[in-house]
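B., you asked whether I could sanity-check this one before it goes into the benchmark set. Here's the sequence:
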Amino acid sequence: MKDLSPKSSDLDPIENASRDEIEALQLKRMRWSIAHAYNNVEHYKASFDEFGVHPDDLKSLTDLSRFPFTMKSDLRNNYPFGLFAVPQSQVNRIHASSGTTGQPTVVGYTKADLAMWDVVMTRSLRAAGLRRGDLLHNAYGYGLFTGGLGVHGGAEKMGLTVVPVSGGMTERQVRLIEDFQATGITVTPSYMLSILDEYRRQGLDPRRSPLQVGIFGAEPWTNAMREEVEQSFDMHAVDIYGLSEVLGPGVSCECVETKDGLHVWEDHFYPEIIDQQTGLPLPDGELGELVFTSLSKEAFPIIRYRTRDLTRLLPGTARSMRRMEKITGRSDDMIILRGINVFPTQIEEQLLKVSGLAAHFQIELIKKGPMDHMIVHVEGDASAGAVLAGLIKSNVGVSAEVRAGDENTVARSQGKAVRVVDNRKSN
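And here's what the prediction gave me:
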């Protein structure tokens, strides 16, 4: 793979500032953000007052732990615009969730918010190894989902040629990558596997594709999948993180020269790790739930938002800003099977150890008598499926039935993969 490490002279000065400089800027912006939310959003005023805290109580960064959390239910309860801190006339763009699991969550952005998004997205793309003049194949979904448009603005700002292909029509995806000679691709990791399948279906060698870097996000994925993609395409595979409640893609990103965790752009987003049960902050290095506070957002400030994503914070390496480990899973994606916590990424990690099985999988949960039962649907031969069942038992600690089927029997994703189907209520 080509060395795509950026030059230090290309970085924003704040990316390699001292921790003292970063924390001084964070405190200044945090004071503004909390006051902005309190003074302009009725929900935050009521919430802070109920907790007996006031923006003036924030004297240091550690004082943030005195303020209440924001939950996804707060966004749903204030649908559609109840958490906006500026008049609608100042909101330049609105994004929203699909609402498939309840009331949609709606977020807004002012002109300044969109400019900030471009800045952090440019940093992320540059950190991943892209350069001015590269051609980016953007296969994230466009529309109300933040992925496509979120990447797009920063990519144009840094001088990339952007192909806004969005998701779907996988045969065309491969044709455009090859015909346009795309240098980079932004896409969910599960859909990248579908693109890999399509390369092979067309009789093309993916290692001879023009792609040099893939930037994957919107769902948890493992280092085992990174190795699978990098070896298959002879390109770098880099992790990016974001969520619409905080911004969208570009909250943090791995650096191509280290690939050792995602550097959080801490001048705009303040991260915390908390104990899931107690809500108390945990020190850096401890595994827990990721919480974010926005430091510069105008339209939709977010204070101590519980993401439900599980990770840990680590010191900076390629940048001064702290890293977050690859997301191990979401607390609401966690399967509790006979008293054992299981995440889909753990199944993926074992699957990618087994030759004779494709990288696609889906977990089905059913009732077998009074007991919960897990079925892992994969593609390949039965003997390889038996090997996977043994690996799951020995390394994850649960018994799972592995059903190996023919090619394309596992549902393909053109966006975020549906890794778990819970049919326990219907059995």
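One thing to flag: The chain has a mean pLDDT of 93. Otherwise nothing jumped out at me.
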